[in-house]
Amino acid sequence: MSKEKSNNIIIGRHVSVSDPDFLVGAVKEAISYEANALALYVGSPHTSHRRDISELRPNEFRKFLERNRTINIKNIIVHAPYVMNLGNTFSPDTFQNSVKLLRTDIERMVTIGLETIVLHPGYALRVSRSKSISQIAQGINQVLADNPPVRIALETMSGKGSEIGSNFEEINEIIQQVERKEKVGICWDTCHLYSAGYDIKENLETVIEEFDRIIGLDKLWAIHLNDSAFGLGTKKDRHKNIGHGKIGFQTLQKIVHHPKFNGIAKVLETPRQPGFQEEIRKLKMSPMVDQEKKSKI
Length: 297
Known about the structure:
Blueprint lengths: L2 H5 L2 E5 L7 H11 L4 E4 L17 H11 L7 E4 L12 H21 L3 E4 L2 E2 L5 H15 L7 E5 L7 E2 L3 H9 L7 E6 H7 L7 H11 L5 E6 L1 E2 L10 E2 L8 H9 L7 E4 L10 H6 L2 H10 L1
Parallel strand pairs: 1-2, 1-12, 2-3, 3-4, 4-6, 6-8, 8-9, 9-12
Antiparallel strand pairs: 5-7, 10-11
């Protein structure tokens, strides 16, 4: 049994779903990076316009996965569009349009056969954070009212502006107000965590223990693996390529191989700059092997 298989390392990156191959093309691209997971959008992240789901060729996609067997469909993570704000309490239209769009993308997921969608919680704007948190939970309750066969992973945020979800307590408040709690979990974003003030570089175990105490590791369903352009606690959100930011390669590799994250899909959202194709391969390398190589130099 290989080291990777015994450790159950599940890792990939966010890829595009585009003409002409759409979903199948996204999977082929992920495989070209030595990935066994991936993330994608099921529609434009910046508008509510959606092409007919048949154009994405979901049947061909499922058949390709069955034949290829490199990527389990459960390890294909959807990202919700950015145009939504479930935390908006000022505009009923904006709020309901956000609910409608999220519900639409979940319906598309069901048609395709996908299970997990990552969601940015929202922004408080000019109201109290507690009021916005209640609004976010209300929106999720509406979306999950019909008990669709999907689960929502709330993403940890960097804390810029009035962004909700930059600390574990706020995310837990949302979950506690959701009726179908079993359908709501968490997606860590390493860049966001570090920028929000969680020192995963020097105190990873402490951060893990805090998360487990406040929310529970059983609720950690995905990890966005990104380096950060900015330092600890800066509340700024800019992803950097692995090893080219303030977090560093060693910490991110440690997260990939950490036993408490065994079997959790880890997805890179790093810039497409020279060398990005090699990031997954390098991260999959055992930290022990990496240290042995360095000692021989």
